[in-house]
UniProtKB/TrEMBL annotation:
<dbReference type="InterPro" id="IPR024537">
    <property type="entry name" value="DUF3322"/>
</dbReference>
<protein>
    <recommendedName>
        <fullName>Wadjet protein JetD C-terminal domain-containing protein</fullName>
    </recommendedName>
</protein>
<dbReference type="Pfam" id="PF09983">
    <property type="entry name" value="JetD_C"/>
</dbReference>
<dbReference type="InterPro" id="IPR014544">
    <property type="entry name" value="UCP028408"/>
</dbReference>
<dbReference type="InterPro" id="IPR024534">
    <property type="entry name" value="JetD_C"/>
</dbReference>
<feature type="domain" description="DUF3322">
    <location>
        <begin position="5"/>
        <end position="189"/>
    </location>
</feature>
<dbReference type="Pfam" id="PF11795">
    <property type="entry name" value="DUF3322"/>
</dbReference>
<feature type="domain" description="Wadjet protein JetD C-terminal">
    <location>
        <begin position="215"/>
        <end position="385"/>
    </location>
</feature>
Amino acid sequence: MITQKELLKKAMRPWSTGGFLREWLANETVFPLEIPFKTPSGRTLTSDFGKIRDWIATLSSHSKSEKGTGYQLEYKTINHNQLGQQRLPHKIVFEDRNDWLDFIGRKTAFRQFDEIAGMTRRQLPDAMQFLSRKPLKALEYAESWHQLIKVCRYFQIRPRPDRYIRQLDIQGVDTKFIENHKGILTELLTLVLEEEDFDDSVTGLSENGFERRYGLRFDESLIRFRLLDSDQPVTDMSVPLSQFVEQPVSTVYITENKVNGLTFPAVTDAMVIFGLGYGIRSLGSVEWLKDKQITYWGDVDTHGFSILSVVRSMFPQTQSLLMDQTTLDEHKHLCVQEAESKRFNGSPDNLTQPESQLLDDLQNNRQGENLRLEQERIGYSYVMQSLR
């Protein structure tokens, strides 16, 4: 015997799966919509006649014949050996859309979807496929759908605008709106823009993904570097990544620690880049670095070797500096412990055999508990000697 709760759950299914809205967009229909249920058996009639009578009364009291809207009840008459003729519910049917929407409480939501669909057909027809694929997601944005359409139309007219989001003048849309809706805008813009009007290789929103994908400006990473043998008045500089032009050197040192970058010894025909950490991945777009001799100096710990592998994946010619067993042996008394929760446990692909062995030793605590030798603990004279 189906309860009102179970009946509502089954009736909701075409809505909660999005099936009804998809079929409505395609001018198809699910009506009349029949809700399956089990009718009581003759044995149940005998043992629970009172419960069945109450169940029938409840079903009837919530039906369209009593409430003026909702489901229709269809009955069939059976002959029972003990109880004689009995009239039992045989079918529960929603004959049309309005009765069904009223019962599941989605009249307002459907009206909103109808408005969204009409607006999209008129103003942004290429986005109709989004409504077909993800009707319920579109409905989540019902209140702001008109603004989403305005943003999409702006990019259709002005693809790759080469401006900051703050500079986009879209009537009725403030820049905070775009910042807060990058996810849904990415899905819509991918559908409505021409292939040449965005960079399909950029996926996700991290690291200014939305801005890079759709040709917007953004607050770029600053690259800080020092020229190590220059007689120019300015040798310590920070520039946006896009303005990091080729420097007149043949050797490039990269070090994570800021102070070590500031105090890096003078080296002929060389420069040092410092302070990037895992942000070092941004250097992968700097083509001219591929023609330089590159040396990376990181901590002798699990993350130091992980970052070294990242650098070498971009620049295979990279050598490491002071990241070897000898350096560790001579400075073990200066080592600290790497926090267990922050250790890197992966297996980088771009390490030499000695580097991989040392990383494996550190990860498995063969030379000490969570051993870590930070760059700045290595004596300055030792660094000078190694460079020589």
